[in-house]
Amino acid sequence: xxxxxxxxxxxxxxxxxxxxxxxxxxxxxxxxxxxxxxxxxxxxxxxxxxxxxxxxxxxxxxxxxxxxxxxxxxxxxxxxxxxxxxxxxxxxxxxxxxxxxxxxxxxxxxxxxxxxxxxxxxxxxxxxxxxxxxxxxxxxxxxxxxxxxxxxxxxxxxxxxxxxxxxxxxxxxxxxxxxxxxxxxxxxxxxxxxxxxxxxxxxxxxxxxxxxxxxxxxxxxxxx
Length: 224
Hints:
Layout: E1 2-6, H1 15-28, E2 34-38, H2 44-50, H3 59-64, E3 76-79, E4 82-85, H4 90-101, H5 108-119, E5 124-128, H6 135-143, E6 146-152, H7 155-175, E7 180-184, H8 200-213, E8 217-223
Parallel strand pairs: 1-5, 1-6, 2-4, 2-5
Antiparallel strand pairs: 3-4, 6-8, 7-8
């Protein structure tokens, strides 16, 4: 089972649209079974599929360990081959709790997905993450095996992109895995590196590549 987080520190770059599009393509064209997880307290992905936030288990219950024992009792069937673990505004309360008392577990979502994988009914899990690092998005990154970062090609977006690379390296080091970055640009330029070589020289190389290629957007994928 593949687990993919769609993440960026910036808002308005197309994370939710990317999640919806990937889910649709994987279900319709590849006949895959997909679980989408709304990690954003704004609940845009949830409202897209359901019209409103449901009175049902949400990601907040999973993160606090208050979810049902069987994973399918915590998700909603949107259509054949597509399940949703919805978000709620309770995710904002979890962020405050994590700041005040450190009550949010970063590995509980990974444990939940291990149960999903053992069942064998889901091929791909997509996490729609909010801007920045929250309790939910950090838990998603800890559970994800791959990361997709939609990036707009403006100066501030490039800077934030590089900050995200640095912060992701800290998370991957925490997971004690090799970090491999693939930068997919207009020229199909790719960089493969390990967690020890994120430095000023590399940053300069990446910025120069961005300037030289100037695609409308970039997908950044980190396999972890």
